[in-house]
Amino acid sequence: MTGLWLGTDVVDLDRFRLALRRTPGMVARVFTVAEQSYASRKRDPAERLAARFAVKEATMKALGVGLGAFRFHDVEVVRATTGEPSLRLSGRAQELADKRRITQWRVSISHSDLIALAVVVGQGGSEAASSG
Q: What is the pLDDT of residues 18-49, one digit of tens each?
């Protein structure tokens, strides 16, 4: 039986910019070096960082967990040569995906001057029976 696991998230860009100004260490704590590098190519990196933050939150929702269930670095947004975004999971995030037998991810990211939006869909077998 195939399962679909959906998560969405919206980030208010003004609030996100304020959070970045108030908490400078947030960038290193939340985003991988590759994500930081990708965002820094833009005049306003906050737009790309906010979109990636939305993806990380949407992934948590698709995995059925909330903040603190895994490190933000455990979910990395990567881009194909075509520009299509996808996910690279590691650590606890990968363990949770394995539990749900998620083998494929689809990611859609969009942003305007006001918001960043992410939709994440995991696809695979149904959730494994718990062992305990």
A: 999 999 899 999 999 999 999 999 898 999 99
* 87 found inside a domain: yes
pLDDT in tens, 78-114: 998 898 999 999 999 999 999 999 999 999 999 999 9
Domain membership flag for residue 7: yes
CATH of residue 66:
3.90.470.20
Give 72's DSSP letter.
G
Domain that holds residue 31: 2-125
Taking a C-beta distance cutoff of 8 angstroms, is the pair 100, 3 a contact?
A: yes
Q: What percent of the chain has pLDDT over 70?
A: 94
Residue 131 in domain: no
From 96, 99, 117, select the one nearest 50 (Cα to Cα).
Answer: 117
